[in-house]
Structures are given as C-alpha cells and as structure tokens.
Amino acid sequence: MVQRVSTVAFEGIEVRPVDVQVQVAPGMPAFTIVGLPDKAVSEARERVRSAMIASGLALPARRITINLAPADLPKEGSHYDLPIALGLMAAIGAIPHDAVAGFAVLGELGLDGSIAPVAGVLPAAIGANARDEGLICPAACGPEAAWASPEIEIIAASSLIQLANHFKGTQVLSRPQPKILEVNGAELDLADIKGQESAKRALEVAAAGGHNLLMVGPPGAGKSMLAARLPSILPPLAPAELLEVSMVASVAGEIEGGALTNRRPFRAPHHSASMPALVGGGLHARPGEISLAHHGVLFLDELPEFQPQALDSLRQPLETGEVAIARANHRVTYPARFMLVAAMNPCRCGRAAEPGYACRRGLNARCTADYQARISGPLLDRIDLHIEVPAVTAADLILPPPTEGSREIAERVALARERQARAMPPSGYRTFAATRRFPAPCSRMWHGRMGAGCRCCAKPPMRCGSRHAAIIACCVSRARWPISTAPTKSAACTLPKRCPIARSPMRSGARHRARPGKWEPVFRPDAR
Predict the structure, then answer these.
(1) Of the candidates 31, 124, 48, 121, which has an alpha carbon nearest to the alpha carbon of residue 84?
(2) pLDDT, block means (10 residues), the chain with 528 residues
(3) Are residues 116 and 247 in the same domain?
(4) How many domains does the chain have?
(5) Domain of 263, in residue numbers
(6) Bridge pairing between strands 14-25 and 63-69
C-alpha cells in the first residue's frame, strides 16, 4: 500500500502541488528518495530517521521508497522533511491513515523531533486554500499562514509528538491567529534634518508620484539621511500590496515569527552587491534586492561605485515591474515594482563643486565627466527626478528644528495619491510608480526651455491640460550628460508652487516637433 501526503514546490512566489508517495515494502532494509531531489531533500532521510527515533518510533527493517511526484519537477529545500515523516508514520500505523488527507504539509525536522520554521509558508497556505486544503506547518510559521484566509484549517505544531497526539485527540492544537509586527523604537522623521528644503520637497514629489530620484551632492550633505526617511512619508501598504510584499518576503525567509507588517520595505544594498544579489538568482533562483523592495524603496548609495553590469540589469525591471530569472531547467518570475532612489557624489573626490578647489587628477570638469560616465544613459533616462543636494551651511545648522515633519508631509502625499486614484483610468497597474507609463492626455505641449536641462509640458503660468497630474510640482527632466554640479534654475522647479506635472519627452505618450515657443499637439498612436 502506498501512503500519499500533499506538499508544494516553489517557483518564484507561485506554488505547484507535489505528491509525496511513501511505500514500505518487503526487501532489504533501505531508505530511498526519488523524484529529482536536491541535496537538502536527499539528506532528509537521516533527519527523518533521527527525528522518529527521538519521538519513540522506530523505522521498520524493510525497503522504504519515497517518490516526489511529478518526477520531472526539481525539488529543493528542507520543507519536505515533515511530509515524508508523516507519510512514514501513517504507513507504519503510528497515526491514522487518513489523518493527513486534505492537508498540505511542510516543515523541517530536527534530530530531536522538533519542527523548525521554513520559508514560503504564506504562498503555500494561499495555494492550499485555493485547492480547498488545510495546512500543517511549524508552530513558528502558524501566524504567517493564518493570513492566507480565515477559513483555512491550520495545524501548527512544534514537534512530531504534538502532531501524533493531535491526530489521536489527546492534545488538540488550536488554530493560530494572524500576528502584526510591532515596531520597536522611534521612526525616522524628516524633522530631524535641518536645511535641504528643496531636497525635502523633491522627496515629497517623488513619494506622491512614485517617481525615481537621483540626488547628487558632496559628502556629508545629507543624501543618505533624506533617503532613509523617505518611507516615513509613504502611505501604508494596501491589502493587495501587503499580500504581494509578504509573499516575496516569505519565499526569501525574511518574515520573523510569522508576523507581517504594513510598512513599505526599504532596501539599501552595499555598492559591492553583484548582479544576482540585486535582481535575484543563484543556484535556486532566490529573489534579489529589487524584489524584496517590491512596493517599497530601493536605495543605491554611491551609485557609480556599483558594477556597471549590475546597474544595467535594473533597466528592464524598472520598465516592466518584474524580473524573470531563467535557468537551464526552469524559469522564475518575481515582482519588482519599486521606487529607485540613488545618491552619488559629483566626482570621485566629491569636491568638484567647491569654489576654488582644483582636482589633482586634472580639470574639475574632466574629473566630473569621467566619474559620471560610469552610469549608462538608458539607466539615467529611467530616473525621473535629478536634484542637487548642496552642503549644509553653518547658518542652517543653528536654526531651530523645522516645524513640519514626516506626518504633515505624509498627509499631503496620501491626498495626492488619492487624487491620482480617482483620476487614473482603469488599468492592470495598481501602483503609482506606473502612472508615468500611461499616455499623456495633454492636448498641448510646450517646447520651450525652463532652465538648464529642464523641460516642462505646459507654458508657465498656464495650467497643464492633463487630468492625471499627480502633484502641483514640476518634475525635472535633465539633460543626460553631464550631471551639472553648478547651481541652476532647475532646483526651483521643486519648490512648493502651483506648477503642473512635467514629463520626460522620451517617456511621454506624445511626441513633439522642434518648434520652440509653439503650441502643437502631436500624439504617438502606439503610445502605451
């Protein structure tokens, strides 16, 4: 007789059902696992043997064969330990034969019979609920699985003995309850930063519209402090966004104690990060930093110091909102709709903009151009806002703390996003970072210049005709090369004044003819 136990295999954040078939037959004593297992799955036989002995159960001196079907699907991870053990316990009569019928099982076993937490419990619970099955998982992952549905039956045990007693009715386990992660310590606030009012306004503009942002300035200007406080002005995750973010975090093993949080993720990898670390990959195609920053912020400090190949790998995810990792035997897709915030010095020494400073490598302009040439033009084109963050003066430092903090700015950001949601046409996109991919409904385009490297889609002081203008500020589209380090009029575009949204001519749904000072509607018929 073959005992069957249901479990899952992971393909990105998607799950595929796997049938664990256990056979105990006469023959020479052996313990074999087939079905394309990896090293961790093959080692399960030793963990299962030791865990059952520690629980007072001895394996029979017979031929034991474990088949993981479908056999052509690679099986990876240690979560197959518990379904194999429960299948063996049912096969030898330690628990009823139909005890695990209608349940998906996953968990890692210790040598003492304890059940250790595993990654991917939330996607497994969602998949089991879709198949009208219950879930058996480690006790530490029970609160995480409870978020899948209030109707799903969940058995969360800490040991094999607890499971055996539960099935016999001597120690019935209660259903775990969803848990919210409690934030310890005070949240970072923009009121902590003195000066940099234009940069704060740019952060508000970027947060309201979901725009990518590049900050250029000397060391110590406060670029990293500004970026770290960006999540404090972003609205909390919506239920659908919370589910997507938590599924990625669950697959990556980032959820601690089964508790979820509605705060948007903030990821800040070191500039030595490789391309697989950023976009995902490795032997088992794990999610990278851009997927872990889904619906959140990815902060790249010292942008030119990153590997050029790693930076250019961000170009496609910034456009599509997802990343596809292809391997010889499978292909995995992870969501990656994030807000890119980058910071960099104007040159290698960081002092090119200081008056009277002479770089020892040559002319300041040449040093600046060589350093900024490390960033490709197509990547810069995908960054909507380029701002300069000058050094804070001593006069700014002696001023009293600003009266406006993150709470007041967050209220304006939430109001701006609410207006966008009402004006946005029906679409599959559900994030504000994707609003710039809609065709521009403006009936007129202003082809004049507003300053050094700046373009605006309306002739000041007239209002823009777009119904989808996200904020009352101007998004600056700078010239690609070079990134200017001298003060320009473009910084004034981020000041709080009534000014319509501007669009980069490369991203706009409408193309224009080079007729400076003329109003002329010219639309691209194939605009997305």
Answers:
(1) 48
(2) 94 94 94 94 95 93 96 93 96 93 96 96 96 96 94 96 93 92 77 90 94 94 94 92 94 90 93 94 89 96 95 95 86 94 90 74 80 92 94 84 89 93 61 44 34 38 34 33 37 38 40 39 41
(3) no
(4) 2
(5) 190-433
(6) antiparallel
